[in-house]
Design goal:
Blueprint (H helix, E strand, L loop, with lengths): L6 H24 L6 H14 L3 E2 L11 E5 L2 E3 L14 E10 L2 E10 L5 H19 L7 H14 L3 E2 L5 E3 L6 E5 L15 E4 L2 E3 L5 E3 L6 E3 L5 E3 L2 E6 L2 E4 L6
Antiparallel strand pairs: 1-4, 2-4, 3-12, 4-5, 6-10, 7-8, 7-9, 9-14, 10-13, 11-12, 14-15
Helix pairs in contact: 1-2, 3-4
The protein binds magnesium ion.
């Protein structure tokens, strides 16, 4: 069942999303060669706690960080570590969740570290475009496959690999609620209703679709070692369009 949000739940969720956006604003400022993923995690933790919210990821199935920090060929779920530092030419995907008054916002962005290659710039631009193409389909009356297909079309146009094992999801009281949202067409005709929220999150690769999970049982990387990008917003369908939840509020 897809949970419909009340006015009050939406208000709290937007606050949670605002906090996620505050973390991303800061990440953009502080990511530079030499900073460790643990330092980024600490910064995120303090912003979230300072806003009287809970870092949703911390302790989730035992995850040890407040953010996932995934570098280059790592797709998602990278564990923050003081010995892992980004360098010029890397990309780093930061995924962050905040729970405010019982409601969750979830958002990810991939940041370039200094100057990156033209291929990587195309990967970042394409994945961001795929996210917003998906968001444009997030409206009452559409079906889940409309979002999936919009993401797939952008990825295929640029010949990017599409990660198959992971995808978007309902979000609200929990980080992962029904439904699961594929990043490619599967024929899912589940109707999108007003006041339902989904985290839309394309994960695209410069190479193949396939991914592998590391021995740490968290870090997901591309099988061919080529770079991967991840862009995610929590989005609420309304009666006349949608609202991006994970953005700064005035
Ligand atoms: Mg998510």
């Amino acid at each position: 069942m897809i949970h419909k949000k009340s006015r009050d739940e939406i208000k709290r969720m937007r606050h949670a999303g605002h906090i996620v956006a505050l973390v991303h604003k800061k990440m953009k400022e502080v990511i530079e060669p030499g900073i460790s993923t643990k330092e980024l995690d600490d910064i995120a933790y303090h912003i979230i706690k300072g806003e009287r919210a809970i870092p949703t990821f911390l302790g989730y199935h035992g995850f040890p960080g407040s953010i996932c920090a995934s570098i280059n060929e790592q797709v998602v779920h990278g564990i923050p570590n003081e010995n892992i530092k980004v360098k010029e030419g890397d990309i780093i995907s930061i995924d962050v969740g905040a729970t405010y008054a019982g409601m969750v916002g979830d958002g990810a962005w991939t940041y370039p570290v200094g100057k990156v290659s033209d291929d990587v710039i195309r990967l970042l631009k394409t994945t961001e475009e795929a996210l917003f193409a998906g968001i444009a389909q997030m409206r009452a009356g559409n079906v889940l496959d409309d979002i999936s297909g919009a993401v797939e079309d952008v990825a295929k146009r640029e010949k990017m690999g599409i990660v198959r094992q992971y995808g978007g999801h309902g979000v609200g009281h929990e980080m992962h609620e029904d439904p699961f949202l594929f990043n490619y067409r599967v024929g899912d005709k589940t109707l999108i209703k007003p006041n339902t929220a989904i985290a839309i999150e394309p994960m695209l690769n410069l190479g193949c679709d396939e991914v592998v999970v590391a021995d740490d049982e968290w870090t997901v990387s591309t099988q061919d070692g080529k770079p991967s990008a991840h862009f995610e917003h929590t989005v609420l369908a309304t009666d006349d369009g949608n609202i991006i939840i994970t953005q700064l509020m005035n």
